[in-house]
Amino acid sequence: MYEQVSHSLLNEILDELKSRFQRDDLRHFYTRLGANFYAIHSLFSVLYGDRADFKKQMRNLVAVMANQYLQRSEELEETDKQREKDHNWFLSQEWVGMALYADAFADDLKGVTEKLPYLQELGVNMVHVMPILRCPHGASDGGYAVSDFRKVDTRVGTLDDVRTLSSHMHKRDMLLALDVVVNHTSDEHEWAHRARQGDKEYQDYFYIFDNREVPDMFEQTMPEIFPETAPGNFTWDEVMNKWVMTVFNNYQWDLNYSNPAVFIEMIDIILFWANQGADIVRLDAVAFLWKKIGTNSQNLREAHLILQLLKDCCQVTAPGVLFIAEAIVAPVEITKYFGEDAVIAKECELAYNATFMALLWDAVATRNALLLKQGIKSLPNKLDRASWLNYVRCHDDIGLGFDDYDIEQAGYDPKAHRRFLVDYYTGIYDDSPARGLPFGVNEKTGDARISGALASLVGLEAALEHGDGEATDIAIQQILLQHSMIMSYGGIPLLYYGDEIGTLNDCTYLEDESKASDSRWAHRPKIDWQKAEQRFNHGTPEQRIFDGIKHMISVRQAIPAFADFNNRELLDIENPHLFAFLRTNLEIPSEVVLVVANFDSEPQYLDLKELGNRGAFEYGQIRDLHSGEVPSMFKDQLVVPPFHFYWLCD
Length: 650
Ligand code: GLC
Hints:
alpha/beta, Immunoglobulin-like, 8-stranded parallel beta barrel, 23 helices, 25 strands, globular, binds alpha-D-glucopyranose
């Protein structure tokens, strides 16, 4: 859009850039800057327009973008251009991701490069390498307390190792996702050191207060994120004799985005990692980016403006790079991180589908899909050019973030139902085979979340311990059933390392003082490669799970209807144990896949008449794309075996 104020500033900036930067071909940069400048200028003015140094800050911002553009390699620029042309590239069903820790998965980054063939064997072609940046040696919240945003932690390797990993991945058509922890730094970061030394400029990078007056106001409405280990939202700093806002752990200092210098530092850091070869940048804890007294300081409008601004700037310098929003918040809030009032994502192209994840766990525990159906029905539609990361579990706890209204609609009392789920997964509930651990128990509110490895949560650990073959079969079916859902729902399935070989809880974290009070470490194990070798040993749980997931991935990748073009129709079917939806290939609308899952221990039937005339799923014509077999049917009634799923075509 053309508008005089921003345009005249753009002209001034362009003149300056042209005199400062020598590179001949800044053509693409200038075109993109021109296209996005009005948006960037508007957002920057809304956030920082009342400052006397507004223009200076705007110039600094553009200089950072130009500098990083000059650092961008030809190869990455080429990828940018290809992705600009093929802008739906990430919606394809071919992408399948995995999140892993470099050290726990393969000792270090070099090890990850060596293990790429293993990932390819499984079919994974997108890898989120969990935080690799320099962090304190003791507690560092799994690397989410960063002490240097541009250095790789010696524990996992060097910057060169990252570049080597990324170039090997690109040669193999794989994508690399890296974290940028945008909300906070470690208290060992240089900015924090300088703030401690009394440097006012750096104290302004954080939220620092002389006394409890402001903190007390905030505390009235801010919830606690880690109530057991880090109660409250502020920490007293002995050196400064001041209070610092620390929403997460007391060693994680929240960054102050009302200071434009913080924003500019962060976009510089994001672009730096884009230039090291990250295809995807995972923006951590984005819901928390703006703080305001009288609110819960989550999901505020300004947090969204910051993300839009980050996106607009990134598009100028590195347009091929995607953002993941890590916003584990209420269902109606999550979709907003794609961007509102737009068709294509204006914030993050990808977001964790925490709602679907939690709902799947509900279906497994209750053996029915009542809440799952209700919860999905209530999820707002997402934008066209945006996609979910669908996952069964990740490195964090499983939070029961459903909507109370949905729980009631499903016929339960919200408080009692949440209690049941925590009891079920922590094995307190009588009939439960689960071996999960409580996490984030808040005595004041009664809230609790759940930790534990997938295999332990679905009963594999207990089954193996008791030598119970039937229970082992059920646990394996549950693992595959949940994976079948994230593979077919629409979006990029994000596996969690170790789940593909049925890794169980790892309780060695209890011996490490810096981890013992954080039960999430139970599901962040070191991979046992001897156990992984069992995938070649027919009939072992490792082989059954690995091959099951591997097969599912290869089938998914060949079904165009599984690409994510908002081409899913949830079916309101009567049988409470079944969850069913249709996926349509938009290029060939007659190509429809009926996905149906039975969460119950008994066989269930689906009346195909309930589908009306959507798809032509007729008696005798149906085939399961996953197994290649024809499922059992009687007239219009399709039989779905216990804990089983079908991907049916006609
Ligand atoms: C994100 C991470 C989580 C971490 C938190 C604070 O939610 O996924 O592991 O504890 O941010 O950095």
